[in-house]
Amino acid sequence: MTVRAIIAAFALSASTSATVDRPDASSIPHITVIANGQRDWTARYRFDRPVRRLVFVRAPDDSRTRTWTAMTGFQIIVPKAGGEILRRIDGKPFRSVDVSMPPRYIYLAAGYAPFSPFGDGSVLMHSGRLFACGNVCPAADSTAWPIHLIVGDGRGIQLGDRSAARNLRWIDKDSGHNIYVGREKPAATGPVNAIIDHAFPGDLRRQLLVQLPEFMQYFSEQLGPLAARPTLFASYDAAHRDGGGRQGGTLPGQIFVHYYGARWATEFTKPDFASDQSWLFAHEAGHLFQRQLGTEAPAGWWIHEGGGDAFAALALRRMGPEMSAYVDRRIDRAQLACAQTTSDKSIHAAITEREIDPAYQCGLLINLALDAAIRRRAPEKDGLFSVWLAYLAREKRGATTDEAGFLACVATIGGQELADQLTQLLDTPSPRIALLR
User: Fold this and answer.
1) Which candidate, 122, 173, 169, places its Cα nearest to that of 147?
2) Could you tell me the pTM of the whole model?
3) Which helix H or strand E contains 314, and what residues bound it?
4) pLDDT single digits (tens) 318-359
5) What's the half-sphere exposure (Cβ side, CA atoms, 13 Å) at 397?
6) Contact criterion met (CB below 8 Å) for 88 and 74
7) Secondary structure letter of residue 428 according to DSSP
8) How remote is the C-alpha of 164 from its chain's centroid?
9) Cα–Cα distance measured from residue 265 to residue 269, given in angstroms and rounded to the nearest whole number
10) Are 389 and 375 in contact (CB under 8 A)?
C-alpha cells in the first residue's frame, strides 16, 4: 500500500459543527504517524469533535513553522502569546489535519530533537514533539495521547520492551518516549539494553557496552535499582549538513545520545574524547536514578543537572588515577566558567538569565561541595547520595520537590546550618562555593 493510500484510509471529513474552547477528553487527538523511510513522515491528528486550532504542548521555538508542512488550507503560526498552533486559513473548525515533517535532526534549545538519524538510515523519534491538543490543553499532568505508528518499508519498531514489525499502538504521556525505527535489535548488556550505531568507531562502541553497565551498577548500589531494565540509544549522523554537535538526555527507562555532523570523525580521535564520553554517559545514567525528579523553575536546575555532573564525577573517580585526573580538569574548567558567569551576580540569577550552562558548571561545584560537607559532618551518611535518597522519598510521599524541598533534605541529612549556608551561597554574587562546611 502506498503512503498516499495509507493516509487516505485514515481520512475524516472536516466538520463545521460548533466548537467549545474548553479542555476535556475530546480535546486530545488520536495521532497516527506514518514513517516513510528517508522522505517526509506524516502525522495525522484526528479529534472526536470539531476544534478551531491545534495547540502544540512543547514549542520552545518556531521551528515547526519552518520544518513542518501542513496540508492545503492549513497553516502553522506563532501567536502573540507564544508557542505554536495549527489552524485552518479560513478559520473554520476541523476534526482532522495532516502535517508532514522531514526525519532529520533539529536542534531545540529547550527540548529534545524530534528525530535522531542513525548512520544506517534508522531513526529515533521523540513522541513528545507530537503532543498537541484541540483549542486548549488540559492542565492535568495525567493527560495521555493515543499514538499509532505505521512503518511501511520493512523496518521494525522498538519501544521499551515492546517490538513490532509493521505498526505499534501505545498511550503516551508526560515527556514522551523515544521510539526506534530500524532493523537493529537491542543487545542485552548486564542491566541495560543497547542499540548503538555501527557508524561509531569500534573502540567507542565497546567502551559504551562495558562502561554503561558499570555506571548502572554503581548508581543502583547508591540509590536503589530501577524498576525495569532501561534502553540505551546511541546514534551518529555524519551526513548531517547543518553544522554539528551532540545532544544527550534521558526519558523514562531510556538513555540516549546523538552525535551529528562530519566533524566528529576528527573529534573521536582526540585524547580526551573517550573520557568525555564516559562523563556524558555517567551523567545520563545518573539522571535515570534521579527518577526524572527535578525542579520546574530554572533557578533550581542546579539540583538535577549539576547533580548529574556530580554523580558522573563521583563515578569516574572510582575508575583509577587517569580518570581521576580527568575529573580534576573538568572541575577546574567548571570553576573558571562559574566564576566568570557569577562575577557580578548570584548563581540563581546566572542560571535564570543564561539558562542551562551555569546549572551544569556552578551546579557541579555546589553538589560536590555539598557531598564533601556532608561526609565531614556525618561520616555515616553517603554524602550527596543520602540527600537524593531523602529527596526521592519526599517525592514518593507526595511532598513538594521544588528547591525548598531539596534544601529541606539537605537539612535532614547534613543539618540546618549546612542548608542555610547553601541557601546564602545561591543568592550571593561572586559566591565562594568551597566555603560549604
Assistant:
1) 169
2) 0.85
3) helix 307-317
4) 999 999 999 999 999 999 999 999 999 999 999 988 668 999
5) 7
6) yes
7) S
8) 24
9) 7
10) no
